[in-house]
């Protein structure tokens, strides 16, 4: 019996001890694109300060918002990563669940690059050509009605393009990369065809010329190295890391490089965000110090370390504005969310 | 004489023998192809994974002074900066705190080389510039770069700096999770099996339960994750990502398997043993405790160990309860966030940096070793306690 008491006592003590230790640890959820950057900062934070290393979970932007906005208790995540700005509906959910004060933080940019095997001739595509290769329905010859996509080869779209079968491997619909690609390539290109009647068109063909890859971009890279006819799109960091196997396809004459993504000339780049619960500062240990470290020049500046793992830093003047806004802990309001920004208007 | 032979001659015999031979070879070729795939898989994993067990180190001179403590990165010139790991430099101030005698001295220490240098030495694709390659080549000749056994892999947790990434916290997380699973699933599973097999009356209700248990054993594991999320996290408020919630979820998953295999072990005890017991006037409880249970224990243990081995390699339900996360610190108890071995392998497989490819394969090798030794224990127990009738 005494043995049992002893065991029970130890178990209880661990529980109580752990119960208090648990709330001391920052929890972060959200986008898989921002995940590597946030975890890098989390690791640095744990290694260089006395605080324990924050736990970073990769749940996708939407999934992260759902958990982030669910409640304001100190056990809930203090931050969520997002590869797109917070939506108005999400902001409203947050407000109604008691997550009133949110600080938005822009981390930098990420480009989505289209790539092919390095053995191929370098290629320059127009966004419209990529659209015509991927859309389920395309404008007919006279441009007045929509027909089922007849293009089987790139040369069917434009005679100057190579006589090769169209085969594009891309992200599945659950991925933030896919959302961003659909918005910045498909929807944008559809605007230049009157046949869609000004509607944003993003339906992707399902006849085998577009192949949805998994969430694992390394697999797409391996496929491209193997299959000379295939093209694929994924986050820029995977292109940068695999320059020996694959090369970027120019879009509208602009190559996917760090410089072109940062100055906005490369057409497929997006902003990455982190949202913070302002009320957690003081409730969860280290929340303020963590966001200050994240916003520092050492992390997201032009020479910051996150640049080495694929983040594309903001231009200097924008960076200064973001840092100032973080320092003042400017809270999000409905107007800012509607405009998709985190800096005060 | 000849006529006598003919009497036994069966015309179809030749064909039958031939068919028998073909069948034998078809079965054997199935085995051969299975072995072939296994060999290819193992060979590929070992080929990719073994470089991860060594790691390049660079001999560097470090002056331990106040500058180093306030900004460790500034103490290195740009050449050293581009070949030494950031993770190592970052740890220097802490090294000074832990050993005050270093202060004010100049030391020659082996610094962790960064991933690019390591990959260059291993002959893998790397991103070193020509200038840096020359420096590394020269240092290699001088012997101031050495490949050593990679202790970091077994002593640290996950890291976004590839050369600093290790498997330790995932191993600890897996052990804690398995401990929870074992404490919950094994006793409950075995006792359920004993009740159903030895005590419960055989009626419609118990038959219904048995059918359900058999069905549960075949349910996709991700559904148990959803159940765990709904019941343990949302309803009971168990901390997300903790070995406790992961262990309980996996326990739900292993329970049916343990029950089914324990029932089979109990069934294999001959009815004569029980009848002899009753004949001597023993109660059912005495028969189960002293005779049936000891005889069926090896079978039960084997079943439990195989169920637990399956649980240790499971990822799908753990994604849902938040164990696929970046957790560099090893958990010290079952309520702290943790990650598990298969989750760590999954995370590494999706990283862009090249060095994670070998880490992924090395992680798989470690996981396989642990699984093999668990199965080995199961086989040993079966052999050791096996009773012949």
CATH fold annotation of the largest domain in chain A: D-Maltodextrin-Binding Protein, domain 2
| Rg value of chain A | 23 Å
Instruction: Round the Cα radius of gyration of chain B to an integer and report it.
Output: 29 Å
Mind telling me which CATH architecture of the largest domain in chain B this is?
Answer: Orthogonal Bundle
Q: Count the beta strands of chain A.
A: 13
Q: Percent range for helical residues of chain B? A: 55-70%
Largest sheet of chain A: 9 strands, mixed
Domain count of chain A: the total is 2
CATH class of the largest domain in chain B: Mainly Alpha
- The strand line-up of the biggest sheet of chain B is 2-1-3
Head-to-tail CA distance between termini of chain A:
68 Å
Oligomer kind: heterodimer
Number of strands of chain B: 4
Structural class by SSE content of chain B: mainly alpha
**Assigned CATH architecture of the largest domain in chain A:** 3-Layer(aba) Sandwich
CATH topology of the largest domain in chain B: the name is MetI-like fold
Name the poorly predicted regions of chain B. Answer: none
Q: What's the helix count of chain B?
A: 18
* Helical fraction of chain A: 25-40%
Question: What does it look like?
Answer:
Chain A is α/β, with parallel strands linked by helices and 345 residues long. Chain A starts with a helix and ends in a 6-residue tail after the last helix. Mean pLDDT of chain A is 86; it is low at 1-22. Helices cover 38% and strands 17% of the residues of chain A. Chain A contains 14 helices and 13 strands. Chain B is mostly helical and 389 residues long. Chain B has two domains: 56-149, no CATH class; 168-388, MetI-like fold, CATH 1.10.3720.10. Chain B is built from 18 helices and four strands. In chain B, strands 2-1-3 form a three-stranded antiparallel beta sheet. In chain B, helix 10 (168-199) runs antiparallel to helix 15 (284-312) and helix 12 packs across helix 13 (243-267). The model of chain B has no long low-confidence stretch (mean pLDDT 90). Strand 2 of chain A pairs antiparallel with strand 4 (325-326) of chain B.
